[in-house]
Amino acid sequence: MTQRPERHRQIHLAAHFPGVNSTTVWSDPRSGSHIDFSSFEHLARTAERGLFDFFFLAEGLRPREHKGRIHDLDVVGRPESLTVLSALAAVTERLGLAGTVSATFNEPFELARRFAALDHLSGGRAAWNVVTTSDAFTGENFRRGGYLDRADRYTRAAEFLATARELWDSWTPQGRPRPFAHHGEHFRIEGEFTSPRSPQGHPVVIQAGDSSEGREFAASAADVIFTRHGTLEAGRAFYADVKGRLAAYGRHADELKIMPGVTWVLGDTAAEAQEKAAEIRREQVSPQNAILALEQVWGVDLSSYDPDGPLPAIDPEPASELAQGRVKITDPFAVAAKWRALSEAKGLSIRQTVIETTARQSFIGTPASVAEQMAEFVGADAADGFILVPHLTPGGLDDFVGKVVPLLQERGAYRTEYRGATLRSHLGLREPVWKG
């Protein structure tokens, strides 16, 4: 008699199209264009073949700079997210389509209209990753300019999202537009919305943030939270904290999916996987990237330093504007002290230290081992699933879908078919109550 596979909690999977920081290995000959539509199509089709919940695009509003020059190891010129996702709606059938768009430098009516259009075009597969933008460097590209204080950008984002939901609900159940009026701290708008209620009611809302403000915003308003935590223990702590905040907003634990961004390396043996992972880390952190990462912490020009030499003996200068458009390191002295301690303990060079601290894969091993690790992570309440970030595009997801997904399915931890048509159905989320 055939033994039934052990049942596990169902894992949610999504695919991230990478291209910032040192995630992508540009030097690999298999690394393709980040502008040609064929790259986006390949990764999306692979994700749909793997029955993923959604395809996820990040977005930058200004090319990042270092020492006054555009950082040439980052993506520059990638098409705008909603345009790409609208095109992908025509070449996919079930895969969710998630775009990152800032609530700081957009307006509710226009953005709500664009996401409603994507939801209609895709048959209910749209998602909005709501982010905030705090720096004046990015703000220079916009009429409003400047920046918002940290607290203000989250209150604006919360009101922005609430306003968008008012617009999505403004049509009557009989399919007729009716006037809306929103008079708040950040927005005073009134008129009539142009789009009928979309197939899944509201696009799915994703929030990416690890701060206390970000966690609270996610607990109050998001359907999915995109985060990062490197260990099982850290994942369980984050999971318990965020899920524990939901009750204050009258929400249940299953109404918010926690999906950390993860990387992986597969090998025929554990030793082969570890060897491949080490090589990928070396490629991700080139000598140039190692010095750049060091300068982000120290805040001074370190171009005269040898990447294969020791860390600087000088203290950081935290007020530096050496790097523009990157997340600021809040406590460079603590980071520098940690890096020095690691370097001294292990005898590491600058490049080796950066590799050790900034470029580490989440899951490494044989396909069976990686499937087991992922199931364990979800079973231990450290996540509801994962957003996979390949180090290569467009083919970086191919091996995972071909080798790991079937093993997750055998374990009973992953779907064998799409059972619904909308992204909400993939995620097990209810359609929002119509407040129109």
Structure description:
With 436 residues, this protein is α/β, with parallel strands linked by helices. The strands form 4 sheets. Strands 1-2-5-6-9-10-11-15 form an 8-stranded parallel β-barrel, surrounded by 4 helices. It is built from 14 helices and 15 strands. It folds into 2 domains: 12-268 and 361-427, Luciferase-like domain (TIM Barrel, Alpha-Beta Barrel); 286-358, no CATH class. The termini are far apart. Helix 3 packs across helix 5 (150-168) and helix 12 (367-379) crosses helix 13 (398-410). Residues 1-5 have low confidence and may be disordered. Helices cover 38% and strands 14% of the residues. The radius of gyration is 22 Å and the shape is globular. Strand 5, helix 3 and strand 6 (126-131) form a beta-alpha-beta unit. It has helices at 37-49, 81-89, 108-122, 136-139, 150-168, 212-221, 232-245, 270-284, 287-298, 332-346, 350-358, 367-379, 398-410, 423-427, and strands at residues 12-17, 54-57, 65-66, 69-70, 96-102, 126-131, 180-183, 188-191, 204-208, 224-227, 257-262, 264-266, 323-324, 363-365, 385-388. Keywords: Flavoprotein, FMN, Monooxygenase, Oxidoreductase. Belongs to the NtaA/SnaA/DszA monooxygenase family. FMN binds at residues 100, 154, 211. GO terms for molecular function: monooxygenase activity; oxidoreductase activity, acting on paired donors, with incorporation or reduction of molecular oxygen.
